[in-house]
Design goal:
Length: about 280
């Protein structure tokens, strides 16, 4: 995360709702939820590439290491992207229910991401509430792992990107914002009100750093929501019909929603994380 990132710390779920109603009366925004505020806005492909080049210490700029930049420039970047996608297309031949080779390139990336391919695209939503649900969902999933207790004093992160400001500038030609391609077999993308960002730059490997480097960092804001708001958030989101079964419109979503109802410690039955005295659950 860049030092110049605009950060707004909220004290409760109600503060988050108020922010959305007061601060975002004009303009078009998209949102991304992450359970850890320190995570940058890097796609799976960008994170993989940094690790493979042993450049995590230079994050987010590959150009921080002159030798690496010389040895692994644009051609290397494009070759790695292209080979991953082509392998997926070739290996998907005959797989039901989507004929991947008949899709446009971006649609192929979306399908690949859905099924676990390491892709250069990052998921967003036009709904801030969907983004918040995904941030808190990761906290709930971690809670089921007894080796990772939830520290209730922390925060989750909701990133807010102003599309109006993105579209109004010519300073960031390597950033593409995609609307959901509406692939019928991927109903969850529609339910999640999906948008995607694609950063095609071989020197800057995450969105926050790219925007800062090009002087347009003001279009991005990070909202910090306290983890102890999780109980109220999950209940309010469920009333909005935002839960596992609707976000993942398939058997996997049904199974996860059943797990939440049976094993989530009462998120649906009045349990409050704020009742824990030691700050850890």
């Amino acid at each position: 995360m860049s030092d110049s990132t605009k950060i707004k710390t909220l004290s409760s779920w109600s503060d988050f709702v108020d922010h959305l109603s007061k601060d975002n009366k004009s303009g078009q925004f998209i949102y991304r939820g992450q359970s850890n505020p320190s995570w940058s806005l890097a796609s799976p492909f960008e994170r993989w590439l940094l690790r493979s080049l042993d450049l995590m210490g230079h994050y987010p700029y590959i150009s921080a290491d002159p030798n690496a930049a010389a040895d692994h420039g644009r051609e290397y970047y494009q070759e790695r992207r292209g080979s991953a996608l082509q392998d997926f297309i070739d290996l998907s031949n005959g797989c039901f229910p989507i004929e991947v080779d008949k899709l446009k390139e971006f649609e192929q990336w979306v399908v690949g991401r859905h099924y676990g391919l390491i892709t250069p695209i990052l998921d967003w939503s036009s709904s801030p509430y969907v983004a918040a649900w995904f941030a808190f969902r990761d906290i709930v999933l971690e809670r089921w792992d007894e080796t990772k207790p939830i520290q209730l004093g922390g925060h989750v992160s909701i990133w807010e990107l102003n599309l109006g400001e993105i579209e109004a500038t010519e300073k960031i030609p390597d950033l593409i914002v995609h609307e959901d391609p509406q692939i019928p077999e991927l109903g969850r993308s529609s339910a999640q009100k999906s948008y995607y960002t694609e950063l095609n730059n071989y020197k800057v490997f995450e969105l926050d750093g790219y925007l800062t480097k090009n002087g347009v960092q003001d279009c991005l804001k990070q909202l910090l929501l306290p983890i102890n708001a999780i109980s109220q958030a999950i209940k309010e989101l469920s009333k909005m019909d935002i839960h596992c079964r609707t976000m993942f419109d398939d058997l996997a979503g049904a199974a996860e929603e059943a797990n939440w109802r049976a094993f989530s410690g009462g998120l649906y039955k009045g349990f409050s994380f704020s009742e824990m005295e030691d700050g850890v659950y």
